[in-house]
Amino acid sequence: MLSDFGIGSSAIGTSFSLRKDLPMKMMMIAKDILEFANDGGNLAIKHGWMEEPPQMEDRTQLSKRKSK
After folding, report:
1. Is the pTM of this model over 0.85?
2. Are 50 and 41 in contact (CB under 8 A)?
């Protein structure tokens, strides 16, 4: 989430800048941020730190259960 915020704020800042050299520099920084976030995600998956995303309940299975 923080990586996304960093990339988004850099993009907004670059869009309002009148300098022509900043977009390329910010793209290189964004590339580094994305690689950092990807490495962090892979590390979390490797060590089992990442939670499983919420899953939708199986409505057909729930409707087949008998009410008690």
Report:
1. no
2. yes
Please state, in angstroms and rounded to a whole number, the distance separating the CA atoms of residues 42 and 17: 34
Q: Exposed/middle/buried for 58, CB within 10 Å: 0-12, 13-18, 19+?
A: exposed
Contact of 4 with 23, CB cutoff 8 Å: no
* Residue 67 reports pLDDT greater than 70: no
Q: At what angle do helices 22-47 and 2-15 cross, to 10 degrees?
A: 170
DSSP 12-44: HHHHT---SSHHHHHHHHHHHHHHHHHHHHHHH
The CA distance from 31 to 7, in Å, is 9
State pLDDT tens for residues 6-43.
Answer: 778 777 878 887 888 888 888 888 888 889 888 988 89
